[in-house]
């Protein structure tokens, strides 16, 4: 860009820049909407999601993150509990001796590189609508219309969901739709050893220090650096929505750095 162009760019007030950016984001969402609303795969998902509305009304569930703290968490206590696992939590299934009740994955890089594993799982799976590039329709696979822009907390899984820079925010919206009155977070460490510009795609060059398994994002795996600030924005929206509905989200992550939700001792929950 020329010096004149740079000067003009700097001269635009920040609120105007933000409004322009939001306008382009809205146009992009409008472009995505027809397929996300009327494609046969989405229509099938919307129909089947209707049966899941409030299916767990009044019950509690655990949303399981993938942080290193899971290694300090007695996961055996979750046998018989309702659980929402995320991304590659299935790597832990063999040692747990049970699966999570549900699985969510919306990150393109995770789904692209793990499509065969996700496709083969035999449990209800919620994935992004973008995942149709790598996953085929299945009886217990649900394509959700998730977007990067347009901050909101949605109480209806059949419509548009904001990802809020983490699948955990999508899991909170899913748990609300399913009717859970108490949601407990574990393994949501909200802390990464790997540093860098948020949302930058990087390639792992060795053992993964940021998740429960060194092979979670092992050598050669492409992933995006976290955007913790945007994630917290989504978490605050989730807390407000749950509390307005007379429900609650608790954080039982051992040693977690997230401060948005009330903390609770994990062992005290059983």
Short description:
The protein is an alpha/beta fold. The chain has helices at residues 3-11, 14-38, 40-49, 93-96, 108-120, 167-178, 228-244; strands at 60-64, 82-86, 102-105, 125-128, 141-147, 160-162, 182-186, 201-203, 222-224, 248-251.
List the topology elements.
Blueprint: H1 3-11, H2 14-38, H3 40-49, E1 60-64, E2 82-86, H4 93-96, E3 102-105, H5 108-120, E4 125-128, E5 141-147, E6 160-162, H6 167-178, E7 182-186, E8 201-203, E9 222-224, H7 228-244, E10 248-251
Parallel strand pairs: 1-2, 1-7, 2-3, 3-4, 4-5, 5-6, 7-10
Antiparallel strand pairs: 8-9
Please tag this protein with its features.
eight-stranded parallel β-sheet; alpha/beta; 270 residues; 33% helix
Care to describe what's here?
This protein has 270 residues and is α/β, with parallel strands linked by helices. It has one domain. Helices cover 33% and strands 16% of the residues. The protein is built from seven helices and ten strands. The strands form two sheets. Strands 6-5-4-3-2-1-7-10 form an eight-stranded parallel sheet, sandwiched between helices. It has a two-stranded antiparallel sheet with strand order 8-9. The protein is globular, with a radius of gyration of 19 Å.
